[in-house]
Specification:
This protein has helices spanning about 35-50, 60-65, 80-85, 135-145, 170-180, 190-205, 230-240, 265-285, 310-325, 345-360, 380-395, 405, 410-415, 425-430, 445-450, 455-470, 480-495; strands spanning about 55, 70, 75, 95, 105, 115, 120-125, 130, 155, 185, 220, 230, 245-250, 255, 290-295, 295-300, 305, 330-335, 365-370, 370, 375-380. The chain has a domain at about 410-435. The protein has about 500 residues and is α/β, with parallel strands linked by helices. A 6-stranded parallel beta sheet has the order 6-19-18-15-13-11. A 4-stranded mixed beta sheet has the order 2-3-1-12. Strands 8-7-21-20 form a 4-stranded mixed beta sheet. The longest helix is centred in the middle third of the chain and has 22 residues, at about 265-285. The termini are far apart. Helix 4 runs parallel beside helix 5 (about 170-180).
């Protein structure tokens, strides 16, 4: 049986919200005072000016030096005044074009974008467990992403298709992202060749020359914490910035491991590394969009394993949002968990991470759906579980209407004392739109739930992703565009693709 969305459009058998961004109606939570934010910022500037940042790419070091930075061998020292001047050109808002113009995205202000998971080595589901990913399974994952309206952007390859050649698999990934989706998608930024292939194929997708490509792609740039930017990441950053595309500068600062054990100390290191990357984009191309990525969490001090979705993670996300707003740069955070099964831990850690990120004022929630095992695995069932939670968050972000009709005085007077509101006109007019419609929740009473087979959330999620996959319809792609993309991929494969970095 088909169901209709709030707009009345039939979307298949799975109830969903319509595609679209829901602006955050509430002020971000501030866990730091203004003085504390300023203290962390000043400490980060001290790190950059006194300790410096090791930059392994000669091209990047030359760019810093040209802008006025001091170099000692591979270490770049950045004066606070230089950092402040270069931050002035960062735009506070920007938009990303999608293949389907109706799915283009806004970043900044109160707008928030939710992505799917990107980057794991493995895939898992209830049927076959965890395993190496294949190209065919990756395409299936992309098709489910396309089918989930609450996911605004694909997160940069859900998992590695390890059955493909490592030097050329990025070409097949880009082609799958373009053909399976009409949403915004993220490119890879590991070295110049891979980055430029993504930019070239995005231009072919939109039918424009590379030098006329609008802001379309977003790529993640991870620093090597502590205080190092490697050659492949620097090359990717420079190529993206040169072509007007968006870098998300994201240190990976785990308290007690790659950063000081205190949250404040880890935030100082994160802020310093993020600033170093952000200003490099402005040296390359003043005014190019860039994002401040926060990924500070803690480790289990007994084992050294990363911990995610913890209270410390939520506080760090909200503090990171304050730091990003202090320097007036759009902010990225993430939905994360260290759970090894799609269980209660996976749900409560992800809910904690989502809450911390959204109420930290994040404009991009990376890994919004599907992340498992501390980022090592993409799960089909977790993709659905997270989409459910994102839908609930989006419903929470919608404002409460208090117009005369919403106040319901006529309905209250009509029902009077001791009645019910199930059949009133006020209720029936809002029958399909009054509340968030869950994909997974069991709201029947316990005997009815038992009678229906006592199916739990992971099993329901398994059925949902399979149903979405069965109902998937490929978005139309112009024949000439498809041929041009195919020719490009074939040529680049003959040339050997991109070297392994």
């Amino acid at each position: 049986m088909s169901r209709r969305t709030r707009t009345g459009r039939v979307m298949g058998s799975i109830p969903q919200r319509p595609f679209g961004q829901v602006p955050r109606q509430y002020a971000p939570i501030e866990v730091l005072s203004a003085d504390q934010v300023a203290a962390i910022h000043e400490a980060a500037l001290t790190v950059l000016s006194v300790t410096g940042m090791k930059i392994l790419a000669a091209e990047a070091r030359a760019l810093y030096a040209r802008a006025g930075a001091r170099l000692v061998e591979e270490t770049v020292f950045l004066d606070p005044g230089l950092v402040a001047d270069l931050l002035k050109t960062v735009p506070e808002r920007f938009s990303l074009f999608a293949r389907n113009p109706l799915k283009s995205l806004r970043f900044g202000g109160n707008d928030c974008v939710f992505t799917s998971v990107g980057g794991p080595a493995y895939v898992m589901d209830l049927d076959r467990g965890r395993r190496d990913g294949t190209y065919a399974e990756m395409c299936d994952y992309l098709k489910v992403i396309q089918s989930l309206n609450v996911i605004h952007q694909e997160g940069g390859c859900p998992f590695e298709p390890l059955d493909l050649n490592a030097n050329t698999r990025h070409l097949d990934i880009y082609l799958a992202q373009i053909t399976c989706l009409d949403k915004s998608w993220q490119t890879q930024t590991l070295g110049t060749a891979r980055t430029m292939d993504g930019i070239e194929m995005a231009a072919l997708m939109l039918g424009v020359p590379v030098d006329r490509l609008p802001c379309t792609l977003l790529g993640i740039i991870n620093t090597n914490s502590p205080l190092q930017l490697d050659i492949p990441m620097a090359e990717g950053l420079i190529a993206m910035a040169e072509h007007g595309q968006v870098n998300v500068i994201t240190p990976f600062t785990l308290s007690g491991a790659m950063a000081p054990v205190t949250i404040a100390g880890a935030l100082v290191l994160q802020h310093a590394e993020a600033l170093a990357g952000i200003i490099l984009t402005q040296i390359v191309r003043p005014g190019v969009p860039v994002m401040y990525g926060g990924f500070t969490s803690n480790v289990d001090m007994r084992s050294g394993a990363p911990a995610f979705g913890t209270p410390e993670y939520a506080k760090a996300a909200q503090a990171s949002g304050q730091l990003a707003r202090f320097v007036r740069v759009p902010f990225r955070s993430s939905n994360v968990t260290a759970a090894n099964a799609v269980d209660a831990q996976a749900a409560y850690e992800s809910q904690m991470a989502l809450w911390g990120s959204i109420m930290g004022g994040a404009h991009l929630i990376e890994h919004g759906a599907g992340w498992m095992h501390g980022g090592l695995t993409a799960s089909f069932e977790k993709l659905i579980l997270d989409a459910e939670m994102i839908g609930m968050m989006q419903a929470y972000l919608e404002p409460i209407a208090t117009d005369t009709d919403s106040l319901g005085l006529a309905a209250i007077a009509d029902v009077g004392a001791g009645g019910h509101f199930f059949g009133t006109a006020h209720t029936m007019e809002r029958y399909e739109t009054a509340f968030h419609t869950p994909m997974l929740s069991n709201w029947d009473n316990y005997p009815n739930w038992l009678e229906r087979g006592s199916v739990e959330a992971p099993q329901k999620a398994n059925a949902v992703w399979k149903q979405l996959l069965a109902e998937y319809q490929a978005p139309a792609l112009d024949v000439a565009v498809a041929e041009a993309l195919g020719d490009y991929v074939a040529r680049r494969k003959r040339e050997g693709g991109a070297p392994m970095n």
